[in-house]
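ARCHIVE CARD
CATEGORY: sequence design from structure
SOURCE FIELD: tokenized fold
FIELD CONTENT:
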């Protein structure tokens, strides 16, 4: 039986007994369901100022893209049918199906990454949940982070986050099965897989450049008033009106009070409600009777947080001062529009770079040899500038493809 030591947070009691601590039984510290159907999980309470986990994530990538991102996910624990769609089979609570929608027809898949998190009693060296299946193929996760001795107010001991590049297995919109996760449909098992999210970056062959920044790192909020404070940087928002979308990968959201702000936008409890593309909020099923889902896959429009020209935005989220939901934070991405002039700047600079590497008046055995040099130089330039855009590449390569460089005139 788990035990939780906590300080009294009531200010009246605090004035009388400033050092009073009490011990709560397991049923106050572990997940259950109250009469309203909301998962009742006690939080450790403190008389001190609400704790803040500052900058738990680090920047992984920052790229210019022509297209966008779609994130879709599913809870794993609480999926009463599992990936096979049949209740009462061994894959219940250890598998699911991610319905990916919204990728434009004909778009090029640039990258697809699967994220998932596991609550476990096992130590870090066991790598619980590292080996799973995606679209029927075995994959091995790369560890995002491990938080020892803490979970989002669940009875397990530790929280671990994983990711895997599954680009070769994603072709576009469709249903993608995920399976082989540890745990099951019990809130109290030694392992509990919260959920999985598929983040897909696509190129739609547009001329509109955007900036993608990707952050990763594990953080667990489980104290009254505890929040995560994460600054997203490495971009310059374009002129007003700005378009921007925020993609959090967060476990344990449900129908409980939250605080969440992105820049000047206050979302309150409207985002982390335990809903995904696969399951609406409150439609999961556990053997203990709870119907809450503990995963979110939101694609949040945060355009109104930008007036134009910003180079950073602050994300803050977690529990309200009087208590509420607990969360496991794994990753977040931001896609924001940039100055439209940047497209032409890359075309011009890329052309100059290519001409320096492949002089138009150089000696080439044929036009094909020249174009091989052009293609390689263009790819090198785009990689150096972190640009993933077919149309930028085309504006560099195509004028040179139409040239006569390397072509031999007949006598």
């Amino acid at each position: 039986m788990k035990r939780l030591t906590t300080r009294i947070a009531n200010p009246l009691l605090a004035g009388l007994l400033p050092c009073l601590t009490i011990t709560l039984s397991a049923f106050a510290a572990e997940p259950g369901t109250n009469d309203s159907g909301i998962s009742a999980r006690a939080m450790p309470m403190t008389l001190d100022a609400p704790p803040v986990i500052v900058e738990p994530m680090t920047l992984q990538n920052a790229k210019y893209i022509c297209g966008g991102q779609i994130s879709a996910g599913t809870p794993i624990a609480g999926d009463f049918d599992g990936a096979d769609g049949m209740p009462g089979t061994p894959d219940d609570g250890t598998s699911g199906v991610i319905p990916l929608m919204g990728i434009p027809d004909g778009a090029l898949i640039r990258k697809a990454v699967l994220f998932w998190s596991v609550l476990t009693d096992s130590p870090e060296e066991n790598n619980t949940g590292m080996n799973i299946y995606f679209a029927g193929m075995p994959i091995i996760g790369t560890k995002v982070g491990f938080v020892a001795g803490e979970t989002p107010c669940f009875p397990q001991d530790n929280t671990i986050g994983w990711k895997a590049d599954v680009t070769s297995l994603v072709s576009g919109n469709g249903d993608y099965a995920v399976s082989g996760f540890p745990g099951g449909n019990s809130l109290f098992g030694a392992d509990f897989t919260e959920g999985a999210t598929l983040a897909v970056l696509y190129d739609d062959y547009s001329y509109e450049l955007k900036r993608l920044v990707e952050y990763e790192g594990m953080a667990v909020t489980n104290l009254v008033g505890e929040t995560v404070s994460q600054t997203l940087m490495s971009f310059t928002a374009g002129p007003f009106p700005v378009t921007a979308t925020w993609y959090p990968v967060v476990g344990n959201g449900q129908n409980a009070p939250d605080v969440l702000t992105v820049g000047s936008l206050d979302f309150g409890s409207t985002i982390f409600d335990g809903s995904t593309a696969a399951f609406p909020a409150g439609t999961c099923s556990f053997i203990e009777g709870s119907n809450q889902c503990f995963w979110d896959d939101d694609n949040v429009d945060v355009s109104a947080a930008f007036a134009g020209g910003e180079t950073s935005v602050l994300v803050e989220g977690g529990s309200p001062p009087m208590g509420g939901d607990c969360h496991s934070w794994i990753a977040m991405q931001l896609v924001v529009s940039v100055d439209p002039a940047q497209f032409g700047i890359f075309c011009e600079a890329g052309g100059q770079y290519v001409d320096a590497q492949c002089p138009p008046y150089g000696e080439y055995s044929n036009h094909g040899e020249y174009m091989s040099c052009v293609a390689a130089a263009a790819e090198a330039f785009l990689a150096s500038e972190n640009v993933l855009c077919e149309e930028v590449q085309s504006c560099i390569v195509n004028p040179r493809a139409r040239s006569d460089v390397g072509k031999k005139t007949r006598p």
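CARD ANNOTATION: Residues 54-337 form one domain. The two ends are 93 Å apart (CA to CA).
SHELF: design records, drawer C
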